[in-house]
Amino acid sequence: MSVTREKILELGEELILTKGYNGFSYQDISTVMGIKNAAVHYYFPSKETLGASILKTNIQRFEEMVENMQNRGFDERHQLEAFMKLYLKSNRESKICIIGSLGTDVNTLSEPMQQELQKMVERILTWLTEILEKGKQKELFQFRISANDQAIQILSSLVAGLQLARILGKQAFKSIHQSILEEIATSGLNTDEGKNSQS
Amino acid sequence: MSVTREKILELGEELILTKGYNGFSYQDISTVMGIKNAAVHYYFPSKETLGASILKTNIQRFEEMVENMQNRGFDERHQLEAFMKLYLKSNRESKICIIGSLGTDVNTLSEPMQQELQKMVERILTWLTEILEKGKQKELFQFRISANDQAIQILSSLVAGLQLARILGKQAFKSIHQSILEEIATSGLNTDEGKNSQS
DNA sequence: GTCTATATTCCGATAGAC
DNA sequence: GTCTATCGGAATATAGAC
User: Are the Cβ atoms of B179 and A150 closer than 8 angstroms?
Assistant: First the structure.
């Protein structure tokens, strides 16, 4: 597959996470790549097709991560932490979650994009709910509300946490990140177990 | 003060909450009002001045609500519930929170708007933290993390809850709303204790 | 297959009419 | 004081060159 196409997808995603879907143009992509904005239309005829492709890429990436973790035999606690680490990385890079970004603009998006977005959120919540349920049975987690409600709660905290961090400063997210685990973890919280984390 | 100006502020806010800051234009406002888009520029020379005014209005509205609740002697539990009811109303109207909406677009906003936004979030968190602290002392609330962290957690859940609800459907927010109180309330959850609420 | 020149529409904003 | 005619530029998108 074309390397130009890959690069456009990458830049487009970055722009959605930094400036928002309605805050960037094909110009923003093309100037970085040293081509004319119209060249982007060759790979993605419309902005909506680019947006939909970015969402599909995100879903695929998520599926690969989940599959990979299950192949490696990650327990539920470590799977949750790995998922949360994606948000720590975004916070370091001052990016927000694509769910929150497109959640703001959802009424201005085409049907295909809205459907992909919904599919993505539902997929993540299904996975999260399952992780929480199994982890609770194994007494890795504790919580009183339903696993599904707890999943929505955690995803909300992560999504808005990144948005708040961009307004208040990055430490705001660290507090959220820590609180999530403190709320539901049954054992200690030394997330990195020895290998001290960066930042 | 001019009624036209008031109407513009109202429509502008609604558009930020439904289409996002970069998703609406002066045209959207002027056509509804039956005037030309340039007329809006008379009241708000630039879109940024309109945005900043909308934020200031929001802050003022919040201050008035807090003052009002304290004058009426609301306890901490009822103050929190009143605050959360604002989000229930937004959910009913399929609007999101202005914090989440502008949090997405923050990198494309002028300095004055960014500062107003930050001021607003800080003000809300200060108030929420205080409510939580006092309420905990009175044993109206229970939570293990710090009051400040709990405040960030609750605000995040509310903000992203509305965004998720727009993607998944309104019932998603109801679950979040309920979970928040279930997490920290010491007594039962019959929110309205007799005096049945509107809607 | 890949990209540019160009068209069209819309946006935010100014100058000036009433 | 209030609003309109109009501008300059940017955004998305098409037609066609290489």
Answer: yes
Q: Which residue is nearest to nucleotide D5 (CA to C1')?
A: B38
Tell me the torsion sign for CA atoms A172, A173, A177, A183: positive
Which of B144, B161, B180 is opposite residue A182, by nearest beta carbon? B144
Please name the amino acid found at residue A137: Q
Direct distance between the N- and C-terminal alpha carbons of chain B, in angstroms, rounded to an integer: 32
| Distance from residue A51's CA to nucleotide D4's C1', rounded to whole Å | 38
Contact A62, A126 (CB under 8 A): no
Q: Which nucleotides of D are covered by protein (CB under 7 A)?
A: 1-6, 10-16
Residue of chain B nearest A146, judged by CA positions: B179
Q: What residues does each domain of chain A span?
A: 48-198
DSSP string computed for chain B: --HHHHHHHHHHHHHHHHT-GGG--HHHHHHHHTS-HHHHHHHSSSHHHHHHHHHHHHHHHHHHHHHHHHHTT--HHHHHHHHHHHHHHHHHTT---HHHHHHHHGGGS-HHHHHHHHHHHHHHHHHHHHHHHHHHHTTSB--SS-HHHHHHHHHHHHHHHHHHHHHH-THHHHHHHHHHHHHHBSS---TTTTS----
Distance B27 CA to C10 C1' (A): 9
Please give the backbone phi and psi of residue B75, each rounded to the nearest 5 degrees, phi first. Answer: -80, 175
Q: By three-state DSSP, how is residue A104 classified?
A: helix
Cβ atoms of residues A105 and A20 within 8 Å: yes
The pLDDT tens digits for A5-35 are 999 999 999 999 999 999 999 999 999 999 9
β-pair partners for B141:
B185
pTM over 0.90: yes
What number does CATH give the domain A48-198? Answer: 1.10.357.10
Strand partners, B185: B141
- pLDDT, tens digit (0-9, with 9 covering 90-100), for A157-175: 999 999 999 999 999 999 9
Question: Considering Cα of B92, then B177, then A149, then A64, what sign does the dihedral take?
Answer: positive
Contact B167/A121, CB-based, under 8 Å? yes
